[in-house]
């Protein structure tokens, strides 16, 4: 059985600066979405337990080929990548079509894993859209997965309750950030990652038409205005004085 | 006439959707229909709020099966000629929104925190880049799916002229079986309602949590936390998480202890009136977000502060 994990390349948000309320993305290095790394780790653990094959899929600009090495180092066996610089900043519906078409090229898929939301946009749509295109059942916000033959026992963690579900494979799962602690690849794993098989697809290989019109248009994207005093406080005594002056104690 | 269809499995959230839908209806002339699934109680409640309510009663329709619920909504949207579907962006709703949007070939925006109608278009605001920015976006497709962040709108008030009809739909057999459902032990604290929050992060030591709690109590506030404190360390329940995937809080005062200030956290606290931050790293970003910034070691500050506040 193949386990597929879908990962998104995102700009390293720690390094995005705000200038005149505009985010400066240029020159910011790419990384893999944080929660996508939890999805990968979940895949690695299941693969180790079940002896299956773990395939990472991703779509994006040409740099994905480099970014994805981290996933191959951390335990994925091979990668299927859709690469085209036109895909930079594509919307969720297109990402989903590309990923679904890619996954359809893989035989015997039992499980498709996503993070609950991408590192940058966190809209959480792609997993659901892919499940619909593939006509598969889905479970989101998952905190535990156990494979057992042709079924999976999966725990979905909602705000106020946990559901223990039994689902027929194949199934699409999106995992919660807290599901596991992703492993850090060793140096030898990183060195070996470059030699793992990669299937590079371009848009012509997938039978997908990129619609001219976008489904979503962005009218503005600005950092909120902030206006903080930024007074340095040197001691607890000063802190108490502040709390009194602001009226939070001693009234 | 084309309409707006709203659905959430939670009545309280459905009422928030109704408020937003009324806003859109005013700007577009669309009429509002509300869908309930297998809940007489919710259906009655919605009728009492003056909503045109449709009730699907199908015991085989399993709310844990997102594909099945999306199919029910697709059928309802078709029967009711709805062009905008509004869901809540709680976990179930967010999962549902993507699936439904794909079925309807619709554009979809989730985690929407506010909206306005301009020239007949619904402009939605949502956090982007992990919360560093706020994007204003609109959906350009004929069908639209909008999922609203919980608590972004007041619940709708009473109105007359509610009505109730049952709706029949087709369902396929489900590939998902619910073996068990257990409620989570929350502790009923409402960090969004608190005027004063003491927010703790990974810079805390577990042994000092009692001090943070005591400080919160002395100030008449609640304790809240960054995500890893709840999800990794499990010192506090998840309903106390502040941030992008937790709660957006607007307290009068937030005292932030041992938190680095990454965007996904900041988005949950940036609307606080006054921010005090204590961190031992003078370069921690949180200090730049603070009205009062203290570079110090919590192990020393907390006992002292606790004592000064009278404990
Ligand atoms: C999609 C997505 C959603 C997310 N949603 C959320 C969310 O809703 N909420 C959230 O909080 N996070 C969220 N995160 C995680 C977020 O990116 C950060 O990882 C998290 O906020 C870090 O928590 P922290 O500041 O407590 O820990 P750290 O980043 O580890 O910071 C600890 C801080 O404590 C300070 N410190 C250490 N020791 C001491 C001491 N003795 N005295 C004083 N200070 C000390 C350190 O200098 C440091 O600044 C999300 C991430 C993603 C990708």
Structure description:
The complex is a heterodimer of chains A (251) and B (311). Chain A is an alpha/beta fold. Chain A has one domain: Rossmann fold, CATH 3.40.50.620. Helix content of chain A is 25%, strand content 33%. Chain A has a nine-stranded mixed beta sheet, sandwiched between helices. In chain A, α4 packs across α5. Chain A is globular and about 70 Å long. Chain A starts with a strand and ends in a 6-residue tail after the last helix. The mean pLDDT of chain A is 94. The mean pLDDT of chain B is 94. In chain B, α7 (263-266) links the parallel β13 and β14. The longest helix of chain B has 18 residues, at 11-28. Chain B has 311 residues and is α/β, with parallel strands linked by helices. In chain B, the strands form two sheets. Chain B has a nine-stranded mixed beta sheet with strand order 7-6-5-8-4-1-2-3-9, with helices on both faces. Chains A and B meet through α4, α5, β9, β10 and β11 of A and α3, α4, β5, β6 and β7 of B. β15 of chain A pairs parallel with β15 (292-295) of chain B, so a sheet runs across the interface. The structure holds flavin-adenine dinucleotide. Flavin-adenine dinucleotide sits between chains B (201-203, 226-228, 241-246, 258-260, 262, 264-265, 268, 279-281, 284, 297-299) and A (34-35, 117, 119, 122).
Mean pLDDT of chain A: 94
CATH superfamily of the largest domain in chain B: HUPs
Largest interface: A-B, 80 and 83 residues
- Shape estimate of chain A: globular
Helix and strand run of chain A: EEEEEHEHHEHEHEEEEHEEEH
* Overall tally of structural domains of chain B: 2
Largest sheet of chain A: 9 strands, mixed
With helices defined by DSSP (H or I, 4 residues minimum), what is the helix count of chain B? 8
CATH homologous superfamily classification of chain A: HUPs
Radius of gyration of chain B: 22 Å
Taken from the alpha-carbon principal axes, the silhouette of chain B is elongated
Helix content of chain A: 25-40%
Structural class of chain B: alpha/beta
Bound molecules: flavin-adenine dinucleotide
Strand order of the largest sheet of chain A: 11-10-9-12-8-1-6-7-13
Give the amount of beta strand of chain B, in percent: 25-35%
Element pattern of chain B in H and E: EHEHEHEHEEEEEEEHEHEHEEH
